[in-house]
Amino acid sequence: MNYHETRDWLSPYLDEALSADERARIDAHLQDCTECRGELDRFRQTLTLLHRLDPPRAPVGFVDRVLAQARPLPWYRRWVARVFLPLPVKLPIEAAALVMLSIGAVYLFQRTPELRQAAREETPQATVRSETRTSPPPASSPEGFRARSAEPESDKLKLQRKVAGAKPPLPSSEPVKPSESVPAPSVQAEAKKEEQAAGSVAAPRSSDLRAPAAPSPASPPAQNRADVSKERAQDSASPLLRPSGAAKSALGTAIVAGRLAVKDREAAEQALSDLLNRLKATELSRRRDSTGLVVEVLVSKDAYPELTQGLARIGSWTLEAEPAELPAQVPMRLRLLE
Amino acid sequence: MARYGLTVRDEAGGDAKEFVDRLRAGEPKAFEELVVTYQHRVFGVALRMLRNAAEAEEVSQEAFLRAHRALADFRGDAKLSTWLYAIVSRLCLTRLASGERRMVRQGEEILMRLANSEGDPSDALERGEVEAALHRAIAELPEDRRIVVVLRDLEGLSYEEIAQALDLELGTVRSRLHRARMDLKDKMERFLP
Hints:
The complex is a heterodimer.
Chain A: H1 3-8, H2 10-14, H3 20-32, H4 34-52, H5 62-70, H6 75-84, H7 87-111, H8 113-122, H9 124-133, H10 142-150, H11 153-166, H12 178-181, H13 185-197, H14 221-237, H15 245-251, E1 256-261, H16 265-278, E2 282-288, E3 293-300, H17 304-314, E4 316-321, E5 329-337
Parallel strand pairs in A: 1-5
Antiparallel strand pairs in A: 1-4, 2-3, 3-5
Chain B: H1 17-24, H2 28-50, H3 53-70, H4 80-97, H5 101-116, H6 121-126, H7 129-140, H8 143-154, H9 159-166, H10 170-187
Helix pairs in contact in B: 1-2, 2-3, 2-4, 3-4, 4-8, 4-9, 8-10, 9-10
């Protein structure tokens, strides 16, 4: 073994990682070569330095941290971590998905008449009751008058059909609760309108056009039934107050309807405005249709007679519908014809 | 093994079968014993290789967690210590080869400059000039030679165990170790008597 070969084997020689034969050959060379012996010494001293190095120690708490990570989490924490973590990534995505889902559901509901129909059919009784109790702010209030006037005709008719199907008219002798026996006034009026359109010959009752009085909690059901019967009797006794079919269709939810024939429409409009101002009546709407100018007003019961007299002075005033009893605030629909 | 002053189960030439069985059965207490026993050695390899304590802890934890997940499949072909050294060595080499190390390497250079500041009395007092030079010399070794020196001269593994842990031929281990020691000897020449 020569000088170079020996040097290549010095490292395993020091580690005693050579076979006996290899070791014997190196020993033989080292006995004769001082340079290789010096090299071997330097190797040995280098290893001595290496072995003197202090071994690093793991930081305090290392074991606890490893065990904490290795310990299986409870199922609920694993579930939370899977669903929500990392929060900055998953939470915005989930929120956005929820918002989009909500928007989609609302859009779908609004765009699908069948769904809305189904939702109504599931609770027809509740619909009627809520209509009776809460909605119509009484027709005597401007809000109620306007709201019902603006209600789409098709929806009203659908509602009428459902109400008629869900709750047929009850015999007067049958004791029922007021809210069940007397549907919402606007609903009744619309139902009558539908009957007229179908060619029914039955005369409408003026009670159907009566202003919906807010249900009085103090009045018992029996009293209510008595009022209804009384009104029906009055209605049948005064056929003159029944609105004609045309008047009814134009009437909508107004409880007093009439026609004012004038020669000079512009002058009549001005005179009407002055009259309404003088009587402190509220003009709710003014619009033109194929038949003429339609003005909806709200006038107090006290000023009502004076208003009709003033109308008679402006032109030829024809009363088309008027209830037996007037509410405190009387809704009117005037049709101005030239 | 005795360097750490711990009771090492495989010191006598093999792991206690009962202990390995407990580990393979997933007994938490057995795993805790494993971590307690090998924490310093696994961390030592990571620190010598990565030269960054935070990164070394991260890699050491990952090594134990991987071992925890794979314990059920541990067949006992190698000693537990060799198996753990293999895991942490591969993790270190992978990390050193990855781009994530760029920033840390800059940190290493700063550490090396600190170790190089021979005129700094505080450094000399704290670590000693020879030790600082030795750390620097080890850090300057190529990674494939450094891991062999660390496992052999600092952790005391045999050639066969190193070959098994790093999945190398025995001759490759021998030659890499020889070249690494030659480098260290040359760099430490002025400190040798």
